[in-house]
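Handout, section 4.2: multi-component inputs.
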Amino acid sequence: MSSWGARKALRLYPARYRSEHGDELAGVYEDTTAGAGPIVRARELADLAGYGLRLRTGLTSGAMPGRLLGLAAPFAAGALATPGLGLLAEMALDVRHGHALALIPHDPRFVLAKVAALGCLLGAVAALFGRWPLARWAVAVGSAAWLAYTVAWIGLFSGYRLSGIVVELALTTAPWMLWSLLLLAAPPDLHRPPSRARTAALLAGAALGGPVLADVMFGPMFFPYRVVLWDVAAPALMALEVLLLVLAVPAARRGRLLPAAGAIAGLPVGLVGLVVAAAGMLGGRPGIALVVGGLVVFGVVVERLWRTPVPELERSAV
Amino acid sequence: MQEPTLLLLTALADAPRHGYALILEIAAISGGRVRMRTGTLYGALDRLLQQGLVEVESEEVVDGRARRTYALSDSGREVLAAEAERLRTVASEAERRLAKPRPAPRGAFARLATGRGALGRGLSVQGVFA
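Output:
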């Protein structure tokens, strides 16, 4: 008879998998936790439940969503490094100009921002060297801090519900959260040791995706940079995103997953760019319709990708 | 090859095993360093089954519970043998290089190390940099 916790955890598994493997998994769980303390039992249970959730959502190395997120994760890690790099540059400037005291934030909210930026930078460096468990923890802590920072600011403006400031804060936080979720959701067994392809994807993330996050933290201070980003770079990146979306399904059907992975990695840039473009050029209801239309197109592509047979995982990727 | 995969394939190399026996064997092979959890183990097993490196040897009911026994497939055996050969080559090269006598330091550092430099002759650090 399996424990209450194991039975609940097994309910997270897809019905077919549970009927085939449920008894076996419950047996191994009971054997493993026999005589163990509550902490060991809780960790085992979390691991058991975690694999059930991965199977249910397709976030395993054997399913298309997991495979695509595994390929996109280094790009996300690179993009998440940029606020930390910007913060380090800002701190270096403060020290150089004799404003070392500025390094100690007078407002606790800025402590959260620094923890967020430096946590994600640590995560990117760890990913670069193939230390993925550390990368995942650092990004999780950093992103939680950024979320708390954003919520704190939104709380400050709570009297102005749905005001421009609140919308902008939510919008600027979206790419950060999407990239960190992407990195955390990727199957851990697809995080391979450093390779040229992984390093290239990470650097591409820092170069192409990072500027959007840098703008989140430093945009208002660097107005000319902001103009270049949103008037020149963002349209080019959105055109690239559209091209990748067009190529994604036909390429995946031929066993090539890079265009689809690139489209998923670039979604945060595409989404924010689309909202900015829609608000700037159309505004109002036509702008909202454009954003919703863009999301529907993305959803259709993703739905077709999910139905595409998964190419065999090469044996070197074990 | 990632370490958990290597340990899992190694645990199956000499005999077919069921889930809990694999967890115990992996802990023993790694000297207690790697303690694979249930969900992680079945995630790895599912992937290796899909890749054809592991196969289900038998299914039986023990104490009213279904239990599968897993075995290394022929291609799994080939992959493990190739990885073992790669590791052996690296290990023997490391041992060969470690067995070589360490080259003596050269230049200023050598003089410092052997006491023939300025510091070795009893000069103070301030004297050297004066």
